[in-house]
Amino acid sequence: MLTSTPVPCLVDGVSFATNTTFDVVDPHNASKVLHRVCSVSTKEEVDKIIESSQSAFLRWKNTSIDERKAIFTRFIQLLEENADALIQTSVNETTASPPLATVDLKILGLDNLRSSISELSDALADRPLPQQTNGEHATIHRQPYGVIFAMTPWNMPIVLGIRSFTLPILAGNTVIMKTSEYSPQTHYMLSEILHRAGIPNGVLNVIHIRQQDAPQVVEDIISRRQVKKVNFTGSSRVGRIIAQVCGKHLKPSLLELGGKAPVIVLSDANLPKATSSILWGAFCHSGQICMSTEKVVVHHSVHKQLEQLIKEKLDDGKIIAAADGALFRGLFCHESANRFRGLIVDAINLGAKIVGGSFDANNTSNVVHPLVLTNVNPSMRIYYEETFGPVCIIIPFGQNRDSQELEDSEALDIANDTAYGLSASIYTSNHERGKALALEIDAGQVHVNGNTIHDVGTMPHGGWKESGWGRFNGAEGIKEWAQTKTITVNEPAQYPI
Known about the structure:
The active site is at 256. By secondary structure, the chain is an alpha/beta fold.
């Protein structure tokens, strides 16, 4: 396992040092440097990385599916053997609690890998088309793109790191993975373990880029003719920039961006269980998940009852955040915490009320406590903006509506009144009504009586609207990284020339 400092890049299977470095600090103590990290910053460094990835692709694309499966099966075994070190590194670099980092690896990460391996053969299988009347035989083939540029985030660094390179590599591509500047050692360790599992040199090259160099270096990489497709998981703000760069250079992309996940609570919902789900969806990882529950749209007849259940849960003093020793830790940087406090202050100044939890506007740390707001309206920033913090808002619906159809229409209007469309939930005892409403919600995945935070390796994962495009996970996720090619076989024919 990695012990050297600065943390190197990994290019062509060996450590790759650079002249430029940056520091990674403890998110709960900005004066404490965790480690120094090598940073790619020059054209010459990019040249070497691109050459390695392209050379490896010419060999890797011809490997059999069974060879690829064997390497990633070994990868799973080594991840399990090195779980403690990987989990601890994630806890150190990010604000994940030990239980959450454990879920990130042992449940989400390994599930994603196993699902990808099991779906691979079917996803890449040739598909014959019906024979044409002229006797023509046609087959659809799936072939890899080439070099893929993957940019992976810090907030669930293990599973999101794994999926950024596993799906493209299994499909026969090579990958340049840019780590998050907040979790570079965690991402480096993933690549180191994959190399120990037998991945050939150059199939996965790992680089770090400091923030001030990222715009120039990222565009340099995307612009290279050898780079054929890009994936990015992160904020919609940065996703917009990546999309512009990809468009400029005519490169396809997969973007999984921000969210403002709504939960609709109907009058027949199991309120205690809906309450439990709402609070977990809003506060897990201190709200720093793109699928976090942000907007609760509740039928007016059970509005006050739901608020009372939430108040009782939050006022018992057990749901809190702390730098250490609590299930929920702080936000990933002080700038994020300051922005979060600004959203709450704006809402309260404009009339929002705290249902439960606590808020201190004068707090200057990155630790913010969970809370729930009511009396929220569209004039407040929090109504539309993704908070990326431990809060959700409650909005009643259905009052003065004289039919279920009108009530449902109002609930859908409120739920869909957002630029985002990643995840949503509906709580009801009527599954058919829940499914009918789910079809009308503008989101990539909707869960009836399930949490908005939901990511299973076999299920396509991605967003609508400003939450991005393309899909990770399962067969659909593998197909993202294989181009279709139609081959026809014909008897020679005479044309009218």
